[in-house]
Amino acid sequence: MAVRARYRTAAAVNGKPKSSCRAGHCLIAVSSAALLTACAGGPASPEWQLQAHSALDRSVTAYLGGDSRVAAQEFDLARTQLARTGRIDLMARAELLRCAAQIASMDFKACDGFEAIRIDAAAAERAYADFLTADPKQEDAALLAPSQRVLAAMGLAGDPAQALRDLGDPLSRLVAAGVLLRAGRANPEVIALAVDTASSQGWRRPLLAWLNLQLQRAERAGATADAERLRRRVEWTLKPP
Fold this sequence. Notes:
The chain has 241 residues and is mostly helical.
């Protein structure tokens, strides 16, 4: 589902189903804003929802831009708004949003915020959490988005670079690249696609992470010229001349 970030975030915190949802339920999946989306609709959104989705959007934007302080502040604001509803499912989606952005940036630490409430999360949220750890369960494949389902069905095998190209949404592509890397399936073409995607969006945090991975591999391969070029690019990204 490739839609604008603010609408994806609104969907993540909206529990009202839309009449166009098929099979009696909404597909829940992380798309390019790295958040779990759900079908949204109905009357005007209440204040808590507007505040929560705006804060989540700002949190993701700040995190990908490399501003951890603002990202944490905005996430705390979103969490405060979501807590007003008493709905753990919404909090689970918000936690997975944050974890997905981390995966896109090659930060593979445990998703503690989600794990703390996993027991009360819906099956779709648990399935997506398993996908992020590169351990998707075949029996949960139907709960994933179509692109994620393809990766899960082939055991994260097949042509990983083509799987990324099929994802038109930038953050979806970076999240998938992170999952592939975690599964040991990120070849040089996957890494290059991740670098180009982060660069095109101006997302400094994931760009630096993927550039440094390219640099490490060039150094190990003895590709001196490539390593020097990548080192200059990393330095320029950290501190433009």
